[in-house]
Amino acid sequence: MAVVGAIALLAAGIGGLWFGARWLVDGASRLATTVGISPLVVGLTVVAFGTSAPEVTVSVTAALEGQGDVAVANVVGSNVFNLGVILGIVAVIAPFRVTNALVRRDALAMGGATAVGALVLANRDVSRLEGVALVVLLVAYLGAIGLAIRRGDDDDDVPNETAGDSSVGRDESAISVGREGVRLLAGLGLVVVGGRILVDAATGIAISLGVSAWLVGATVVAAGTSLPELVTSVVAARRNDMGIAAGNVIGSNVFNLLGVLGVSAIARPMTVDPAVRSGLAWLVVVTAVGTVLLATDRRVSRREGVALIAVGLAYWVASAVG
Fold it and tell me: Into which CATH architecture does domain 39-153+210-321 fall?
């Protein structure tokens, strides 16, 4: 009976993720076009932060309950999964061109966030003051994106053809913004709830099998909380919304390291398992590989996508064996 219940929960979670991701991508893409903001910016901010909501919920809750291993392992494992498996799958589905803004600002921000996160976790302790510093860095990154929008120099590979259409009246535009905003929020809600259901079901099964807290956090929980990013990016890639697909991955990684880890430490300072060092080593490697692939020729090919997936899956194998 318990098995039947778990299967039903998994099915409900998958359904919520899939339909929620479709609404989220549709709403985000159309909202970006209506208000004249590039899909890349929407992917980096609204979509990325929204799909990272499960990471926030799981890590902060774990920190408050004194389970620092789960909180930190979730961040590290999610980022490896995002950049390795998810970005790799996106490239396999639809090889994409990388914009200058994504390389110059966002990939560098991701690399910087990884370096700072590794430095903070090097002694296996994350203090409340370090958590505040991480959140301040996240606010600075968002400020940089805001300045780019104001200057109008945030380039994107998806042209916005309707932003400057004077034939669209203000009332009609306001109605469209409201409608797509509701669609986006509804999709986000389904994505978050679906992801949470899957995480709870998978975590319960893993813990019942006697798996360590760090391993559960680094693999099962990390993959589960990354499912919203996976489904959202895959749906966006299939619809050729590459700005949202790539921006979602990069933005989520920055948000996880600075926002999720920072807020978790503010909620309760954490001390983590020595296994964090090997996890950080993998994260640094996959971030370096991903950044080089993004910067090389300003394009990510299918072959490079396969390489990213291989690195991401190798992390899972190493974590399980270790």
Answer: Up-down Bundle (1.20)
